[in-house]
Amino acid sequence: MIHIVDYGLGNIQAFVTMYKRLGIDTVLAKTENDLCNVRKLILPGVGAFDHAMELLEASEMRQPLERLVLQEKVPVLGICVGMQILACSSDEGIGAGLGWVDGRVRSFAGNAASAALPMPHMGWNDVVPAAGSPLFKGLEADARFYFLHSYYFECADSTNSAASADYGFNFDCAVQNDNVYGVQFHPEKSHHWGAALLKNFAEL
Amino acid sequence: MLRPRIIPCLLVHQGGLVKTVEFKDPKYVGDPINAVKIFNEKEADELVVLDIDATVKGAEPDYRMIANLAAECRMPLCYGGGVRSPQQAKMIIGLGVEKVAMSAAAVEDVTLVTRTADAVGRQSVVVVLDVRKKTGLFSKGYEVFTRNGKQVHKGDPIEIALRMQEAGAGEIVINSIDRDGLMKGYDLALAARMRQELRVPLTLLGGAGSHQDIEALLAECGVVGASAGSLFVFKGPYRAVLINYPNPEQKDGICRAGLATHFSK
User: Fold this and answer.
1) Residue A32 maps to which CATH number?
2) Where would I find the beta strands (DSSP E) of chain A?
3) pLDDT per position as a tens digit, B131-149
């Protein structure tokens, strides 16, 4: 059973469809009342950093989520902007992030190594998982995912990097801090590679 | 390394899928949902679905059809057709579509691109430019058309594309009207100029007739989107309808062959 945090941002239906195919039940959590018997959480999101944080605050689910994730250690997977808001802050916005994984979200355009490349970073890129990362079990030799973003996560502590991808330089495209996981790419739109990753998360 | 995207482009006309030649003579090639299911199985990189009726009829996008397509689609999906406002784009993204394409409305009012990028993020805003090589005796260059090739617009396609990029487009799709359905290769000269000028991801559509045509495009432009209609819905010289897509080995081969010169540079 997976709870998908539905705070009004992101392609919720794609996760529901993907997990249905995998034979795993999902629940949409729109309010605090939907967050009972939670075993796994998915935090989706597309769009801008500040907008995502504002919507999450407005949903009044931030506090119950922090209790589940930080105290009860329920595994959570942030995806795309849902991953970026795990950081402390972002070049894209002025507000603070959740701070569940120490780091800052940076702009590709502001990095000399990627500034000359087409923006946004759009398409399928090869992903190199960190050794032993449970999210990428079975994907060590061949991991390929769909990306669509202009900002990237920069871990403050490199041991929190769960995978990297190359766009002018190697950036942290997946993060893990204990029970908090995040991926920049879209596993829900990444064919069998994405299905494998979402299954791995469900089976943690 | 970021890979080139190989993208089937499906045209919707009167509720069914069609394929045109030079934007004319739509030939029925099947059911949209069925096609999406097949491209799921073949693990296509992305899918573009364009409703070629909506704008010319002045109709709203068919949200029910879009919702059905999005629910079925297990790859990134770009929808275009009849989108004239940020609200419509927001609604379409909310149905589970990654990118929204605009053409006529964007060319007619460039502020729409900015307003839509503000509403859904520029990564989800695609501008499609339908272009045709000028054919008169003393003419050179290209013209931009909208409304299924019926309305011509002043200005060089590159300048218009740059204006769209400036306004907030996250991707530009160049669709060659005079190559549509002919399967004789992409307009490589135009593609190369566009790649050189633009800073956003670029996708070419129109003319692909073989995997070699895609290789030639990649050799010319490096990592871009290579989109095609006929190539992925017809098989053989008699254009029998058969949905197809390169398998993983073929796809790796196309990318390797196409990008060989770029790696050695």
Assistant:
1) 3.40.50.880
2) 2-5, 26-29, 41-43, 76-79, 89-90, 103-107, 121-129, 144-149, 151-155, 161-166, 170-177, 180-183
3) 999 988 777 899 999 999 9
